[in-house]
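Reminder: ligand-aware prediction takes two inputs, not one.
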Amino acid sequence: MVTSAHASEVQAGAVLEIDLEALAANYEILKQRAAPAECAAVVKADAYGLGAERVGPVLAAAGCETFFVAHLSEAIALRRALGVKASIYVLNGILPGMEDDFTAHDLRPVLNTLEQLDLWPGPAALHLDTGMNRLGLSPEDVAALAAAPERLRHVDLRCIISHLACADQADHAMNDEQRQLFDRLRAKLPGKPASLANSSGIFLGPDYHHDLVRPGVALYGANPTPGAANPMREVVRLKGRIIQVREIDTPQSVGYGATHRATGPRRIATVPVGYADGYLRSLSGQGVGCLAGVSVPIVGRVSMDLITLDVTEVPGDAVHVGALVELIGGGGPTLDEIAEKAGTIGYEILTSLGRRYQRQYLKAGKQPR
Ligand SMILES: Cc1ncc(COP(=O)(O)O)c(C=O)c1O
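Here is what comes back for the chain with pyridoxal-5'-phosphate:
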């Protein structure tokens, strides 16, 4: 039985490193880029899977004063982690019956409808829909509001926001269209600080910065400028432990469905990471890891708890039970590369990261804890 302090490390099938120093550095990069606009942080979905209760305080220490989450429950948990100072906005807005919780935890709804505007008398943001057709006041709602300005009188409006649909495509016509519509709609309402840009929006230039920017995914290391070099630092590294090595030869197959067939003598390493851990099944026969500096492809299907990698090209002594294969970051594929191989986006890879990994939060100048 393993009884040492490192028991969980030895027992874990995979280690997920979350580099809090890189996170803080990313906040600084975005803040500098957006200055003089204020830089908020979007920490919904448990800080994109990385743990809002760890990520939030690090961002606050880096100077972040304004946070956005999606749900009221996330906001209540974040308030506990951050203490009283930070402003916390709830993007999904406020529904009847939630008012007491918003008041008790000093939270601010992002008001998405005229009904929500009538419901809430406290500090809030107002969301104008400029093209997502998801949340926020339509241009018709804004016209109705402009015609009845008394509806705004009781609300303590701190900010007017909108959200870009195509910010990750810098030359997409919709960016400029949404920006112009946002400016036109805002002109009908009382002057308030404005916020439009997400991570990629920050890199569209100062016209998109307004008074407050709202990055999420770039804080966590994904590239906000697809097609160009990633200006962000790597925050997430996933390493899976080899638990078995076997030799196969023609005509043997690997995994469910026998989708991978050996065409000669091969070495297969089995690593206990599967789709139950957020290592997406679409990475079957597509994903890649790195062992001792050598790229090792996933062969066969990703199963619930296991993947199989062809390690034939890796020098023999590096392939052994206990060796760690880099699956995301480190020498392995970047977050964006693995997302592409899975046919998805970095957001989904991050927010799917499993609960069975041993999570190590790396702090500036300190050993992992
Ligand atoms: C309204 C709103 N603002 C900001 C963000 C942050 O976006 P990103 O993670 O692309 O920076 C999101 C995320 O989806 C959002 O929904």
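Residues 1-5, 365-369 have pLDDT under 50 and may be disordered. The first helix runs from residue 7 to 11. We will return to this case in the review session.
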